[in-house]
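User: Sequence in, structure out. Go.
Assistant: Echoing your sequence, followed by the structure tokens.
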Amino acid sequence: MNEQIDRKLAQQIVDTVKDVCGQNVNFIDGSGLIYASTDAGRIGSYHEIGRQAAVAGKAIEVEADDRFTGTQKGVNLPVYHNGSMVAVIGISGPPGEVRTYARLAERITGLLIREREIGAFSRTQEERRSYVINGLIRRESIAEEYLKEALAEWGIARDTGKRVAVIRVYGRPYAADGAVLDQDIRRLFERARACLYTRNYPDEYLAVLEEGDFVRTEGMLKAFCAGRERDLKVGVGKAVPLEELADSYESGLTALESLRGSQENYAVYDQLTLEILLSRVSRASREEFLQKTAAGLTEEELELLAVYFEEDMSLSGACARLFLHKNTLQYRLDRIGRKTGFNPRRFRDAAVLYLAVKLKNRPCPADGAGQNR
């Protein structure tokens, strides 16, 4: 394995490339060993054409599966950095369809290698800020002298309240419109006077805001989100001292997850109530609760309940939203009551079903929600 690309970085690269092209991607070393792949079953196996591409130093295309050991049809491209081959990237699929993605994969690889190779003490301003903010939110050890010097240089106080704003971008972040959105987000952070901000490829942006600045610029954040519901969601964490920034990041992820299944795309942790508890429900507890309450309901019935609860259990309001006659809605609610044993028209039973609907639309921590990626 090339020392510039460890397994973690290689896996980040193949996952990022797959997000762009939708095909399985392999990272192959000079001996033909697959050491990172979007198909976990292929990690550690031998890739004959990957080996040949590494030896030849040029791209090799394969038109059919299983013609060579451990090889499927696709494009296999050696990637170079500073004049040396670092790996072979193999993209599975018809060569005519995936050929253009091979060069994009080469560029992505070069970008991520350059990010990694610069040492923490010789970084550019942007890279240094990224190093500090990610070290703090991940509770990693940062040399005290380095941290003190960086904070003094940037004029950041340690004892004032700070919030982490987490922006999650959807779609294809490497498309042309993704580049425009990237610049818009960076300009937003500058206007909002973020004392630290960075992008974690491919789809996460982080900004650290002084509490005083957040109070003054929250309207700007909301205005930025308006009209971008299909592009991004924003979760703002609670205010904490700098040393507890990881807590703000984690609460920002909770705020972000509270937006799942909602048409809203902006949330602040301080304004959450029930969502705080739901975000901490384990997989086992979630499945057990749903099995006892909503396991037998169809997606249509769950959607009906969601609208019914959003309308504060108002029959007229729900009928207007669902385009149903009042008698039809009552019949369907009664049927839900018979199927579940909980009558959605009674407050206590409705509270149980309300929780079921919320849990059904929300992954638990064991599913990966609220975890640093």
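User: And one key feature?
Assistant: Residues 95-117 form the longest helix (23 residues).
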